[in-house]
Specification:
By secondary structure, the protein is of the alpha/beta class. It has five helices and five strands; from the N terminus they run βααβαβαββα. It is 38% helix and 18% strand. The protein has a five-stranded parallel beta sheet, covered by helices on one side. The two termini are 13 Å apart. The structure holds ligand CA2. The site of ligand CA2 has 17 residues, from loops. Ligand CA2 binds next to loops.
Amino acid sequence: MKILVINGPNINMLGIREPGIYGTQDYMSLRKLLEDTGNELGITVEEFQSNHEGDIVDKIQHAYRRFDGIVINPAAYTHTSVAILDALKAVGIPTVEVHISDVSAREDFRQISYVREYCVKTISGLGTEGYRQAIIFLKDYIVR
Ligand code: CA2
């Protein structure tokens, strides 16, 4: 089983500022958590981060017939990108949406998520642990 984890803009800056919102874990420890989770569950977990919407669309398209599941934190593109939603619909791969912070308790402009209508689950506000939960959920969802 192969799961692709996609992180959107500024996720590579985690741990540098706003620890009250995003926690103290940096991007490298997130990558380590993903690797450890893959090893623990005996599955392949690949991580991709980009600050560019088109690169994220390209990566989703490239995942077609190569990955069994996607975990995506589109970051700011969550609230703006129909292109990422359309790419997920186009490839038809089961996807879980993850947010590090509790977006439901934040600004009005963060209340819209374009990808949510496609995703089989949304996990928000659990910090980087949310990615681990998403991978565990997807593994079970895919084999069912
Ligand atoms: O809570 C999340 O995971 C978000 O997807 C993170 C995005 C934000 O735009 C979404 O509304 C919610 C931001 C990514 C990280 O941004 C940073 C900001 C300051 C310092 C470090 C990272």
